[in-house]
Amino acid sequence: MSGPQRDEPALGAAPTPAEPPMIAFRSALRRYPARLLIGVLQKIGVEPLPGNAIVAQLDLLIESLDTPEILRPLVDGLDHGPRLALSLIALGEEPRWPFAGLSHALAALGVKPRETIRTLVERGLLAAMVGQDAPPIDDLGGLIEGTSTATLSLRAHPGALALARTILPEPALPAGINRVRQVRETDALEPILRLAALWQRMEEAPLRQTQQGMLYKRDRERVEDDPTLAGPIADALEPLPDMAPLWLTLALATGLAERDAAGERISAAKPEFWDDNAFHLSQMVATRWLALRDWSELAGRKSDEAPLEPASPYLRISLLLWLATVPEGDWVALDDLSTQLGRIYPTWDRALLVEPPAPLLTLPPARVTGKYSKANKAAAGPAVVAAPVERETVEVGTLEAVLLGAAYQFGLLRAAEEEETGRRVVQLSALGRYVLALGPPPEGRAVFEHFLYVQPNFEIIAYRQGLTPGLIGRLSRFLLWTRVGAALELKLTPESVYRGLEGGLAPDSMVREMAEHSQRALPPGVADSVRTWSVRRDKVTYHAATTLIEFATVDDLDAALGLWEAEGRKAPARVAERMLLVEDETTIPFQRFRMAGSRDYRRPPESCVEVAGDGVTLTLDLARSDLLIDAELARFADEIPADPPSPGSGTGLRRRFVVSRKSLARAVEQGATPQALARWFSDRTGGEVPASIRLLLHAANPEPGALSTSRPLILRTRSSELLDGLAQHPSTAPLLGERLGPTAVEVAEPLIESLYAALSAIGLTLEASPEDSLSAQGDDPSGSRQPRASGRTRSSS
Predict the structure, then answer these.
(1) 591: which DSSP letter?
(2) Rounded to whole angstroms, how far apart are CA atoms 599 and 581?
(3) How far is Cα 682 from Cα 685, in angstroms, rounded to an integer?
(4) Using alpha carbons only, how large is the chain's radius of gyration in Å?
């Protein structure tokens, strides 16, 4: 009955650390003035301390309530109503209840809510809690009897919940029904199967959250659009709305999913979770459903913008307790239960927990899957009636939605029809009585040993009659759930086998698990593939967390390895010429290293390369570089060997690279494009591609075209970019004279032959005009090219 008691954050809410139950209860009482604490002490028969010191009176009250000799008679001496209230809170394993929710649940049980709650609060078994902006508590009676209780919540004393026993409402329902037909009961495996599929999806990739705690759109759609998670249920009496958020919330509540410390990701629990919790998982899921408040059977997940809470979540335990009032084995007609509830609490089936103060109810567009009572429709007005829906509206009442929808799927009851009238009747199952602490744990179902049909294409059919929660957990560790229905479909993939290996399973154990439950011998290829995939994975070492250290030179790395050996530390693994992999960060002798920094690879690439004035020499700043920059530079540049450092100067943190015609040709062959280079220079240098490199790119074209000159010796190019490259490149810049325009530059006559040679070295040619050729041959009978300034020009291409 006591069980784990914690505040689970709702799906979409930012996670908040849960306080221990007793500390949270004490924190609630700290807002009481001293005279209220004294009044509680007097009610439980303890003499208050003299004076009005709040801390002293609070310590005495907490100490008294922790004393079994005081607490047990206090709980046992309660009337039926207060004992029923403690029973209700304990069954949900949720110590904190809103006043309106607890009142709604108690009224549905035929108990006067305000009187019952006041009794428990005055005796210190419930602590009243008001909002942070509300005024301090002055009078408990006035607070509870007041009309404005929207911000009031209650927290139960943990010791009182531990002593609570299941109390049934009075009077009992009319005599039970015995003659029924068409009995239906689920195997209670549907939630387990859906949670197993969700666990696998989170194993593949965690679900990311925003700072407000909401799932990112892509991750939300990945869950909501997965047919294995959100597909229809084969054996359903009433549909469940918003199933994917329901499974995710239950996964968080049961521990099958975990939020990281920063609240940024939701990840799958360790595979050992199935070994530790599979046997009790059906009870765990059902119990957490009883306390689930941000999801309702009528409207699905509560919108984060919705100002009002649905009422049906607070009726779940009350309805099950009414079913328990008939003798075990008898059936209850839903009509009779509805009549009983209407007689003791006319508004028991209202849609909202607190009635809206205005005639029109303001709600955001919601996925409405249920129907409202006539009174609620009138109060809500057109804002609810005309609310847009995202799926076909299903007409279903509160009883049908809660009992025939969720409670039936969680295995808490069975359903049938009365023989004489055909009315729908229900009955608590063994699991339902166990969850209500009214019976022993349910006995295991008789299962078929050979329920798997393994096909040669690695697809597997599983029949539900052979499954148990433990088997579901074992199969989930190395098989992929692809369809959940009357028959289940799984698949064996390399990724699923890798997941099993990482979870500690051996290849032979996976093969043995399938062979043990298969209807026939496994196809030979299946066992061989499992072993092949396993060997393939064994060739790769997986490190869940590690540290990579990059050194400026090979000598620095060798010196660092010497430091590890000198300190008697475990040597790291050498994974590259200048990189070490360290599994245990605590073994790094940081005091002996000069660290250049660390990198967060989730961030955009950092600018860490400087371009020299010649445009082709690139200098890498190791203090700002990362592990990817070497591979990026090696595609289109060659490293310039560094000069040996002078003694005592230390190792520099800068390396130089040069871009040449040969290195750019290599990059082009590997698929590099001008656009890709432009992006790289923008990311890594913060600027554009230098003109020298654009010149080399032009020369690397299959038909770059020739450059030519004319007299006087003026070099003209087809574009200003080409001339910019010539003026910047180290082999041509010294040979050019004064620039005469965007595409023209003067060339000194003695340097023309050198210009020919320089252009040829980078893959370009210099072509003289016909007039120049004739003039040169007339002046020099040998026919050698001796261009001279004659007022003509040379053109370049």
Answers:
(1) G
(2) 15
(3) 6
(4) 39
Q: Which of 110, 150, 112, 117 is nearest to 131 (CA)?
A: 150
Inter-residue contact 691 to 717 (CB < 8 Å): no
Tokens 């590997």 found at: 670
What whole-number distance in Å separates Cα of residue 201 and Cα of residue 197? 6
Q: Which of 711, 703, 723 is nearest to 796 (CA)?
A: 723
CA angle 624/627/630 to nearest 5° reads 90
Contact partners, residue 590, CB within 8 Å, separation at least 6: none
* Encoded tokens for 711: 């007299």
Helices 99-108, 316-323: crossing angle, 10 deg rounding: 20
The encoded tokens of residue 699 equal 């020369």
> How does residue 565 score in pLDDT terms, banded at 50, 70 and 90?
low
Which tokens hold the place of 674?
Answer: 């001008």
Query: CA 729, CA 731: separation in Å to the nearest integer?
Result: 6
Q: Would you say how long the chain is, in residues?
A: 797
Q: Would the pLDDT of 611 be above 50?
A: yes
CB atoms within 10 A of CB 570: 11
Q: Which residues pair with 98 in a beta bridge?
A: 153
Q: Output the pLDDT for position 393.
A: 36
* Whether this model's pTM surpasses 0.70: no
At residue 151, the 3 state secondary structure works out as coil
Q: Which of 735, 708, 732, 709 is nearest to 790 (CA)?
A: 709
pLDDT band (50, 70, 90) for residue 794: very low
Q: Smallest Cα–Cα separation from 124: which of 214, 194, 172, 57?
A: 57
